[in-house]
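Q: Structure tokens for this one, please.
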Amino acid sequence: MAIIKNILVPTDFSENSDFAMQRAVELAKVFNAVVHMVYVVPELTGKLGEIMRYDPKNLRKDLEKRCEAYFQEQLGKLPEGHGVKIETHVKVGVPFKQLLKYQKQMYIDLIVITSKGESAIEEVFFGGTSLKILRYAECSTLLVRKPKYL
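A: Here is the predicted structure, written as tokens:
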């Protein structure tokens, strides 16, 4: 039997991400694993980045503060998560690249990711991210979908 110690769950704070998080928590209980919940903010580059003129270090601090409320809200929907160690992280950059980098750095054994994002824009963004994670991850990946009957 495979040993799973670390589970990565990319989130966009959507209902679909809630469902992926539920599955990750269920697996974490079975394997006594740590769940790593990660939100990646796309980095502004090129002309848009120049126009916005932001400092990535300050942006990350601000985003971590703002995202903490979202993380707590999402975790509040998981009463079954009690007793499971859950870490939350905010990254800035190209989402699939940041997630794959995190996977290597943290020795992630399993990625649990949703197939759809919150909106049409998120779906395009997250769908593309999901596909790249499935293709390039160096660990097992579980793609979850929320059943239509739930």
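A few notes: The CA atoms of residues 120 and 126 lie 10 Å apart. The radius of gyration is 15 Å.
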